[in-house]
Write a structure and sequence with these properties.
Blueprint (H helix, E strand, L loop, with lengths): L2 E2 L4 E2 L7 E7 L5 E3 L14 E5 L3 E10 L10 E8 L4 E6 L14 E13 L5 E9 L2
Parallel strand pairs: 1-10
Antiparallel strand pairs: 2-3, 3-4, 3-5, 6-7, 6-9, 7-8, 9-10
Length: 135
């Protein structure tokens, strides 16, 4: 079984992968990763776990032309506002990296797939999440 690249990517034994968020029951802010207090209203012990949506809209993007050795460029780094709440950074794939092809508020969906062939020291593969335009 592949390993998730981040702690908030959940791989249930049954069912599809999903991103997990934590919602403050006081102010309704949504965050990634576990926390004991809300970063917005500072409420304590009022965080609820929730499954985040697999759809959203592009909030911001950057086309990256220079990166670390071994990372193929150009690629599109994007920030997506998920439907139902939550904001996530990820890469936009299946889209030509030309600003003419990417629009703010463009509908996208999450997909889960191999993390570009990366493996841990034991040879286990990783699974990651990516965004792609909704056709």
């Amino acid at each position: 079984m592949p390993l998730p690249v981040v702690s908030y990517l959940k791989l249930p034994k049954e069912g599809d992968p999903y991103l997990e968020g934590h919602k403050c029951s006081e102010c309704e802010s949504i965050f990634l990763k576990t926390r004991k207090a809300c970063s917005k209203c500072f409420s304590r012990k009022k965080m609820e776990v929730l499954k985040l949506s697999n759809t959203g809209k592009v909030y911001s993007f950057s086309i990256v032309h220079r990166s670390f050795p071994g990372i193929e460029v150009p690629y599109i780094s994007t920030i997506v506002d998920l439907d139902g709440g939550g904001t996530v950074k990820g890469n936009l794939i299946n889209c030509d990296p030309d600003p003419k092809n990417i629009k703010f508020d463009m509908p996208v969906e999450l997909i889960f797939k191999d993390a570009l062939g990366r493996k841990d020291s034991d040879g286990n593969s990783y699974i990651s999440y990516f965004f792609q335009p909704v056709n």
